[in-house]
Amino acid sequence: MIARWALPAAVAVLLAGLAPVPAAAHQQGVSYSDVEVEDGRVRYDLTLSSHDLQELDVDHDGAISDDEVVAQYPALRRHFEHAAIVQAGDTPCPLTLQDFVQDPAGGVTFRLRGSCPDDTPLHVAFQLLATTGNPGYNLAKIRFRGTLTEHVFTREDTTVVIVAGEGLAATAQHFLLLGVEHIATGYDHILFLLALLLIGGGLRALVGIVTAFTVAHSLTLALATLDVVALPTRLVESAIALSIAWVALENVLLDRSHGRWRITFVFGLVHGFGFASILRAMHLPPQGMSVSLVAFNVGVEAGQIVVVLLAYPVIRAIQRAPRRRAIVATASSAILTLALYWFVERAFLA
Fold it and tell me: How many domains does the chain have?
């Protein structure tokens, strides 16, 4: 029993050396829109990370200087003015790139301004991801008629329509879908679940594993989103990779699922910090935060249930196979190799 818990504890201590990495830095592939329509004016602040502006980095120092932005300012103006679109009722609200400022968390904030009536519904579109093919997210906060709406723009979801008085309902819907998408595109979380289920063990073991993972990651998801606990992104992502490696190694060396819910709970706490990364990046205001958090978590759980339901028939078939042990060991070895690669990439190359 002591040995079973020793490695996770040792991993936590060893990874502490990575802690100096700033937790507040903007994530690669994530941009931010801060929009406000009030008193006949529209303010649209678009923040892009240094990584997403790397084509401007002519001296290749990893930072975007004012001179580098100014050198491409006419092209940026045309690009952003077509990518960020606001319409109130039937009236378009053309935006003009006014200026830019360096963002303290890394990157550049481009400030667009325009005139806009206070008509409803309000249409806000962000088409930069669709036109560039970027697979990332744009995390938007939109203030209109005293209501704050949070929305996540993607390549496929480029427009949000806000009707006064429907802010919380729209927020819940979008964060529910975001939670589902986060699982669907979170290959490391999916691989962790599959590695846990691969060893088999029957319905009781399955329920124990899924329940432990759900309770654990829900706890740290809430704590991290509410800023009660904060860990550096590199630390969390590296620990997630190691959690997958540990479970896969167990599958190779051991042939039992009894009591596995315990280690699932420990590593589930780590995965919860990973789930929280996108919500923390949005700096959610107190208004509507509980709705966003609960809806996102429900979406994560829904996505997780779908993964388990799809995987369970395959897992049962493996359990009945004549060479079950060889299949489990081979698949787990492949998972172990990939997880160790992710760890090296995230801990030392990111």
Answer: 2
